[in-house]
Amino acid sequence: MRPSIEHLTTAYESFRQARKVPSWYSEAQDKSWQRFAEHGLPWRKDEHWKYTSLYHLAKIPVVPAPDGHAETGANPVIYTGDQATVIALANGRYTPSSSSPTLPDGVTVTAGVPRDEKRSALSRQVVRPSVLQDLNAAFAEQWIEITIADNTTLSQPLYLWHHTSGEQLLCSPRLVINVGRNCDVTVVEHYGGAGDQCVINGSVSVAVAENSQVHHTKLQTDHDSTSHLINTNVDVSADSRYTSLVIDMGARLARSDLGINLNGQGAAARLYGVFLPAGGQHFDHHSFVKHNLPHTASEQDYHGVVGHGGHGVFNGKVLVQPDAQKIEAVQSNDNILLSTSAEIDTKPELEIYADDVKCAHGATVGQLDETSLFYLQSRGLSRRDARHLLVEGFIRETFATVKCDHFRAFLDQLIETKLNVLVDQLPLDATEMSSSKPASGTGPANV
Amino acid sequence: MLKIENLHASVDDTPILKGINLQISAGEVHAIMGPNGSGKSTLAGVLAGNERYTVTDGTITFQDNDLLDMKTEDRARAGLFLAFQYPVEIPGVNNAYLLKAALNARRQYRGEGQLDAFDFLTQIKSKMKLMDMSEDFLKRDVNAGFSGGEKKRNEILQMTMLEPTLAVLDETDSGLDIDALKIVAQGVNSLRDEQRSFLMITHYQRLLDYIQPDFVHVLANGRIAKSGDRALALELEDRGYDWITREVAV
Amino acid sequence: MANTRDNMHELVERKYQHGFVTDIESETLPPGLDESVIRRISAIKNEPAFLLDWRLKAYRRWLKMEAPDWAQLNIEPIDYQAISYYSAPKADKDKPQSLADVDPKLLETYDKLGIPLHERARLAGVAVDAVFDSVSVATTFRDKLAEAGVIFCSFSEAVKDHPDLIEKYLGTVVSHADNYFAALNSAVFTDGSFVYIPPGVRCPMELSTYFRINAANTGQFERTLIIADKGSHVSYLEGCTAPMRDENQLHAAVVELIALDDAEIKYSTVQNWYPGDENGVGGIYNFVTKRGDCKGINSKISWTQVETGSAITWKYPSCILRGDNSVGEFYSVAVANNWQQADTGTKMIHIGKNTRSTIISKGISAGRAQNSYRGLVKIMPTASNARNFAQCDSLLMGDKCGAHTFPYIEVKNPTAKVEHEATTSKIGEDQLFYCLQRGISEEDAVSLIVNGFCKDVFKKLPMEFAVEAQALLNVSLEGAVG
After folding, report:
1. Is the CB of C404 less than 8 angstroms away from the CB of A352?
2. pTM for this model (two decimals)
3. Cβ A315 vs Cβ A287: under 8 Å
4. Which one of A20, A75, A208, A263 has the minimum C-beta count within 10 Å?
């Protein structure tokens, strides 16, 4: 049975009475709600929710995040002063008072209901439509649009600080990032905060015009009772390169849908991901790259380390449209299971309708290499530290794309903390992982 | 045997060969030398019929036939052999199978019967000995997992089996150590006679110590800039290519 | 390769070679499906009550089920009432007692297909069960097999002669309600092959079943059950062909394999059902459930398939690796040309400790065909030290076809090691040029490269059939390169 939408229905009823938006917008919201309500929350029989359940979410009596009361909390520790341009969002709403006082040249931020002429944008083509986006559209009162003018090169990252606070709130951030031609920008979205049992159901659209470079990192350190559901849709134009890095550390449930349209010749996307679920956490990455035109390229590399009680999911898809020739696409997902109660489900897919392509994918699941552990121990490291080192090495290569040193140092620090948790949960006994050695007769004789 | 006149060829609309003239008679060994990017490999590719190259002008006559009018496989069957600079790997297809298919295609073209399996084996084993190759080579997949030297030796082995009338060796010596080079040279020399001609494309003079050419040509900027005998190769070894490139530019 | 397209047209004209119809009097039930049809089939076959009950149970379940739609297939709705569920060559009331009683036209049919059934021309070392439409018409070498204690007979005979074995094992691997097509098969299956290898016996020859659909508007629903008792070994091969008809015909088979301790079953398929014509008209709908249960410790089940026929293929030969140290293998070549659609792969379910599985899948797409690999590797918490390796390669020939890969990997045990690799590319132009430069014609070069691509799978087939499979591949793909 599908998860109940009873609480969401109640929430929508109270929301529609209180909302103050133009009528065309409220009608559009009602339509979105209708679409959502007819379908209901996704569940395991929907192919893309085969491994991720939303039943717990149905049990939370959420209310829409109210306007005007939220705090943005402290800015992330490293980003004070001149190291980044902070754009703060509290429970999905733009909060200028907590943001950097000035924006760099070429960058503008607006927030509010979009003007009527942008109506068409409500129904724009997404790579993989989802009912959760209908749910977002139904509740989102404010579109936060970040526009980067042509020929803008930013020396510092735009740091989008998504702060969640309060209890059992439904936050529906809607973010639109338009990058002009010939730009080179780094955007960091950082989701965090202390909200208790909050549900973040966000929608992020990124459009990259010709010949630009965009580095987009999504760092997620939400409270461990939070449900984090973010759908990111990216359109990449000719000769532009979009690089994504998604890092999941917090939240109870984190589901990231990342859809990429490669819409111009010479467009390229590189997607990297790190997920470190443990202690009841469930992290799910769904990526989908559409090669719509010839001479487009994509690369995906996701690394999962699943600790005690963690569940990781990866579903990566590459679609090559008919007549999109001269495509190169590679996709890989490597996973390490650290514990007997860790679980991973991975499904790397290729769907190819053109013939002049070079596509490959690979997926592996395994545990830390016993020989390497032994080697490090023989050099004097404790078993714990040896594990730590190997896991760190396993995920570190993914960070190579982070250009900003400050931010990388910040990431290193966060990862370090998370890894300590992951590794310290494990029993130190060397044999616990291989409780069953190969049956006698197949292994070396006992001496 | 081979007559190239005013040959122009390009890759993706970029002209590479800009008027090559060359004549090779039966029994002659010609060496073409030249700096990187001078068009040496393009010439080899055009001769073999690689569709990457577009011939924009000129003619090539091979044994009184219009070579440019012939399909790649027919050029091969008529006796033109190209030893590839980068021999291609074909997984799952073993060397013996490829060679047998190639030999029989050629025999059929000439109205000869299929080669008897026993004769084939006897023949190839003696050639393999000459090329210092072990017998398990026959069962291995074409060039798959071969070292660079093995691939080049395999090219020459195929050449000795197919007995071409004109063999084009595209940088067969590149990347070979001295022992491998000697073996390759031995294979080539074993085939030399008054009916058969060779066109050796090389970057280094060293090969010519082991296979003595009758003529040496220098290719620069898509044209034959200078022709001579072996002494020219030695001069190039001493002085490099720059002086010729400069001469051409003037 | 400018002139390829010219040659192509000419070569595509080369027709399916097994498309003839045998003109023979048949006894055929009128089209339609209800409980009375099932009772009638069961009555014709004189079945014991337990089997009729089982059929009805399956039928009632089937009525409540929906046809699966998750595969990457475009299927016209099937009218199950328009199909005849039983068709058999009219013979004497009783089944032929010996080959002498078999209609000469039938023997001729199998001769034409290259499967001689009569004594003097039999395939050396291969025992054949020939299934024609709904019934088995002959099984060769039965006496010789009986000497070794091997039971190899039609399913109907097994129901009569070995009801205890049937009752014990039928539906234990693929239950009557496993999936839509398996449930339909369980309700209406008519014949098939049965094999039992007693403990410690190495079957002295290859066993083979040859399936032939002949009658129009019929479906073929056969059921094969192979039991390898402790320490036994058997190699089994099936082949399939059908006449060329403009209507689609349904083939929904079930194969169950059971390997007890230390037993090994090698199951090979060369599937060459009529694929439809170059416009996608006609052809067999091939919806097959094949599953093996490695019940015993150290048991092994190996599936090898060469799939060149059928308009639609929906098929996932699977292994349940229940016994400790058991081994599952899946080697597949799937070719789809013209308008063919294939969605095929495997499931490897690791339950026992130290279980191993290997998946090698080679997909070739040409024309306007769609070819998908779909596979599941599942490591249960109990399967310590499980290992899986999967390699799925796709080769594209022509710019109108598609090649898709959908691997599902589910791991619940940290000591498992699972590796999946896949590549998709077109036939290499540099490889083609190399072969052409050696004087090999383009068709031969393509055939050489494609056969090389499939070699890892072909070498797993029994010798006699590897040659047949290669020839089949060449016929299926002739002229397909573009």
Report:
1. yes
2. 0.85
3. yes
4. A20
